[in-house]
Amino acid sequence: MANATQTSLSDTVKTQYEKRLLTRAQPRLLHGRWPTKARINKYGAYELRKYSALSAVTSALTEGATPAEQAVPTISTVTMTPVFYGAYIIYTDELEMTAFDPIVSEFTSILGEQAGLSADTIYRTEMITDCTTDYTNGAAAIGTLAHPAYDVSYADVVYQVAELEAQSALPMENDNFIVILHPHSYASLMQDEVFVNMFEKESDPAMRSGYVGRLLRCIFFVTANAYEQADTGSGSTTDVYSMLFLGRESYGSLGIGNLEPSVVDNQGDNGRPLTGQQIRPVEVIMKGLGSGGSVDPLDQRGTLAWKMALDVEVLNSSWIRNLKHTNVFSDD
């Protein structure tokens, strides 16, 4: 006689689904937090201008003689022109009626996360492209960086801060410069005895997303979306990381009306914003089933989408520095 088993009665063995969905892993979105921001509602571009400074006067006046006229200060301009970005997902009526999970709600959240990550990456790309680039431990090129000889250290941080000060860079938050680094680079610095002994750690990590502490007039923030270049170091097998040092007005951004992306921290419990902001980072566009009219005669398709307008430009390359380096994870 055959036994009743899971195989013979497989239709009665079901999967139990957890109604609560797992939290998706999201990096801290930091790069768009400190730009000189502008917004337009008309016109196609936006112009920022800066006059050059005059050098010091070190020659004494001659009695009764008029000195030579000063050279006319030069003016430099930066023009920003927003471009549009967006993405969408199509869902069907049958999926909405039969899916166990709240599809529309989840798709909206996923698209919102994508929009935030896209904006942060656009900021990061421009900052990395047009900044002043340097290398750890006196290296001259990215191909010479090797672990552990060129791992980031306290001495490298001192050097970058000194270069910002030498360029008369203006500090940002509370008279501090901003430093953005990868968690892997933070791990290297926290194994540098001099750095650790002087580093003032964050006493309440929930106060601000990504903030880990301060040192040498710098506030340090970590994010998994910090720039990383795989296999570009020594022997083409070593990963190289970027650490950004930012001064005030070093970069700027421009949006159009309500299409300008907003910075929303999402590192609280269950993805809730730590700043208390309950605003959408970009315009979210929802088209319900049948909203396509004659294109969707049987009301079978709906869409969820996001759209934003953004341009990012480096305004002063001397006040934004990219320290390329290795760390304890570079050869993993």
Labels describing this entry:
single chain, 332 residues, alpha+beta, Major capsid protein gp5 fold, capsid protein of prophage fold, 8-stranded mixed beta sheet, 5-stranded mixed beta sheet, 18% helix, flat
Describe the fold and architecture.
With 332 residues, this protein is of the alpha+beta class. It folds into two domains: 36-50 and 71-123 and 254-314, Major capsid protein gp5 (Major capsid protein gp5 fold, 2-Layer Sandwich), CATH 3.30.2400.10; 142-251 and 316-325, capsid protein of prophage fold. The protein contains five helices and 15 strands. Strands 5, 6, 7, 8, 9, 10, 11 and 15 form an eight-stranded mixed beta sheet that branches. A hairpin with a 2-residue loop joins strand 8 (211-215) and strand 9. The N and C termini lie far apart (57 Å). Residues 274-279 have low confidence and may be disordered.
In brief, what are we looking at here?
With 332 residues, the chain is an alpha+beta fold. The protein has helices at residues 93-98, 103-129, 154-166, 183-189, 193-198; strands at 36-40, 46-51, 75-80, 83-92, 132-135, 177-181, 200-201, 211-215, 218-222, 228-229, 240-246, 251-256, 283-287, 301-314, 320-325.
